[in-house]
Amino acid sequence: MMTVFSKFFVLSMICLSLLLGGCVSSTPIGSQGNVAVLDQNTRAHLSTDLTMADYTAFAEVVTNKMLSSRLVQGWGTKRPKLIVAKLLNNTDDESIRMADVYDRITETILNSGIARLVDTSATQFDYVVRSEMSSTRQYGEGGQELVFFKLEFKLFTLDGEMVGQWSDVLPLGKAKKSVI
Amino acid sequence: MGENMKLIKKMMVFFFSVLVLVSIIGCVAQKGANVKHVEDKTIDASHPRATLVLASSQLSGTLIMTNVRFGAVGNFQRTELSMQNLSKHKLNLEYQIQWQTKDGFTINSNQAWHRFSLAPKQIKNVQSVGKDPDAYQIHVVVRLPDDFSMDSQKQKKE
Asked: Is the pLDDT of residue B153 over 60?
């Protein structure tokens, strides 16, 4: 009687250990000097400065608004020639990589196929997009900071008439420094 | 007594077989290569052209996507949908809308996570334009912010 129970107990223990341990992943965890590759679209911020993902978000939102406008809808398959003028940096931060913001904007417009982009030196074009980035900044107690970045698109015809304006705002806030 | 022993042995064999079966089946990985996605409470595919993916099980039953609309803007497709906070707490979240062709291929455009907050019971509309003439359907992914800022610290405290 005991022998049968002992056999059953031993076999059950083996099965249980297989059941509990068999599915555990054996992927080794490497150490990489506290550096990690993040999600390429991560919106994480260590300071109140703009990141590449912010440039992408700006370009996406403002072009969304532009493409949804009646004027641009009316272009249909005409694909007018567009000059995207140099982006103005009206923020309090001269270190913003305006060339990267500009590239994100042109990339989004170009990939949409809605218009043909021509160089600023071109003599034949239909519209000019003038864009500007500006900011406001406030400081509080204990290192608190609140920054608003704004990107604005203005679309002009050859005659200089403004026919469209679209903008997006990105607020960044920094919390109080911890006492500990 | 002999009959009882036989019965006990039969029962033991039965239990042992069940245990072996469970241990084998339990380790078999779920296969999904031939399905669009594995059914889960964090996925809402009730709309033929829009799928909501909640990238956190905490959001299941708390956040829902409602009133999905599609329309044409010039050569492109535009979508607008509503996010509804069913809970009694404020939610700080971020979303991404990925456009796909009719065949389910992802449109290669830069996608950004967009931050949004929902007060208790609030409904908010979000909009996106598929910046490609072939854009047809959307995948909406909502997650807790991947952030080091005060927003996420506040959320952890809550």
From this structure: no
- Sheet holding B76-85: strands in order across? B63-73, B76-85, B123-130
For A89-129, the pLDDT digits (tens) are 999 988 888 898 899 889 888 888 889 999 989 999 999 99
Look up residue A171 and give its two tokens: 């607020």
The CATH number of B43-144, from 1.10.4100.10, 2.30.30.240, 2.60.40.10, 2.60.40.3230, is 2.60.40.3230
Chain A residue with the nearest C-alpha to that of B4: A1
Residues A65 and B127: their CA atoms lie apart, in Å, by 9
User: What number is the average pLDDT over the span B84-112?
Assistant: 90
CA distance B129 to chain A (A): 6
Q: How many beta-carbon contacts under 8 Å exist across A and B?
A: 117
Query: Which CATH topology does A52-174 take?
Result: Rossmann fold (3.40.50)
On chain B, the residues whose CB falls within 8 A of the CB of A106 are none
More confident residue, B48 or A21: B48
> A residues 156-175 near B, CB within 8 Å?
172-175
Q: Do A12 and B115 touch (CB under 8 A)?
A: no
Positions of E strands within B5-113: 43-44, 50-54, 63-73, 76-85, 91-100
Q: pLDDT of A125-170, one tens digit each?
A: 999 999 999 999 999 998 899 999 999 999 999 999 999 999 999 9
Q: Do the beta carbons of residue A136 and residue A148 sit within 8 Å?
A: yes
Domain boundaries, chain B: 1-30, 43-144
pTM of the model: 0.74
Contact of A77 with chain B, judged by CB distance below 8 Å, is answered with: yes
Lowest mean pLDDT among A20-34, A62-76, B59-73: A20-34
CA distance B128 to A61: 8
